[in-house]
Amino acid sequence: MQSTLQEKFPSIPTGQHVNGEEAAVFGAAIYLATQKKWNPYFQELVVEDLPETASNEGDHAPLTKERLQRVKELFEELVERQKQHAAMIVARNELESYVFETKENLDELLKGAADEEVEGVREHFSSVVDWMDEVVEGEASAETFKEKMTEARKVLNEVKSTIKPKTKKTKSKLEL
Q1: Which has the closest alpha carbon to 54: 3, 2, 110, 16?
Q2: In the prediction, which pLDDT does 51 show?
Q3: Checking CA distances to 52, which of 82, 140, 148, 149 falls within 20 to 30 Å?
Q4: What is the value of pTM for the model shown?
Q5: Within the chain, how many helices (H) and strands (E) appear?
Q6: Of 73, 16, 85, whose CA–CA distance to 49 is shortest?
Q7: Contact assessment for residue 87 and residue 81, using Cβ atoms and an 8 Å cutoff
């Protein structure tokens, strides 16, 4: 257990005695890490916010109710951040897939649209790709990626709505 703790939390010294409540919190964190649900925020939370439990004599004092409550709050904050991070990843992937698939099929999707309209859509989608390349993870929320998706769909649909459907020409009497 100690080697695992030291591996996952190198900035936190491990002692021979581990408080039961702390072990539970660290165990949950290790579980998240091994399940590929790890988020770098956790170590930040642990290092900055986990209450000290060691006394001057080197003994581990039990967590008080207040300290235990704070640890629970920190863990709940971790879980919430994990959910937000996962939602952001899903939204980013959905936007990325939509933009690249649409760009690949743009000529077919906008067949019959004016060249300048098609180029405008192409430029908009390229600007979305540039934005995604520049955005640093954690700077944009899932909601921001969803807004970009809505905007991209709107731009595409506005141009699609200007395309007049091709109608079958009826033969004139002269052609008969």
Answers
A1: 16
A2: 47
A3: 82
A4: 0.60
A5: 7, 0
A6: 73
A7: no
Query: Does the pLDDT of residue 46 top 80, yes or no?
Result: no
Residue 97's region, left for phi above 0, alpha for psi from -120 to 50, else beta, is alpha
pLDDT tens per residue, range 71-113: 778 778 877 888 888 899 999 999 999 999 999 999 899 999 9
d(CA 80, CA 94): 21
- Residue 165 pLDDT greater than 60, yes or no: yes
Task: Count Cβ atoms below 10 Å from residue 91 Cβ, excluding itself.
Answer: 20
Return the structure tokens found at 23.
């072990």
Report how far residue 28's alpha carbon sits from residue 165's, in angstroms, rounded to the nearest whole number. Answer: 59
Domain ranges in the chain?
2-59, 85-160
